[in-house]
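Memo to structure team: turn this sequence into structure tokens by end of day. - J.P.
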Amino acid sequence: MLYGNIEQLTLLPYVNNIIKKLIIEAVKIAEDQPAGRYELSFPESFLMISEGETHSSLNLHKKYIDVQILLSGYEEIGYSNKIDTRIKELEHLPDDIIFPECVANEQFVTLNPGDFALFYPNQIHRPLCTRGKPAPVKKAIVKIPATAFSESSLPCQTKE
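Reply from structure team:
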């Protein structure tokens, strides 16, 4: 899991430049568009804008990197670096999502408007948590195919 704020994005050396570009693109789209799905400039990447109340459920993806950007409201996101080997062995998930029933070693990070959290495939996360009563939130969720960052998809570099 990576965590940061869009105002500081250019200062975060640990965030890939393609991901930075897609986060900036998604935030610009989300400023003017209603809830829905929008294609992004990077192949097979897309944006989902959602509005609603906080309510939590665990989820995990196999194919996509998931960047959760909070646009308005307040949210806590649970996550765990402990991977359930039974889930890791699954190769295909319908709609690239599974909802595990429980997670070990769950930790939480608080998101305020402009904050983002990035989750890699096989990393369980629990978005839309809150302390107290459910509250309204608006989010931009960027989905980036993990294959975009596999060794075979990166340009070759030769030593001189």
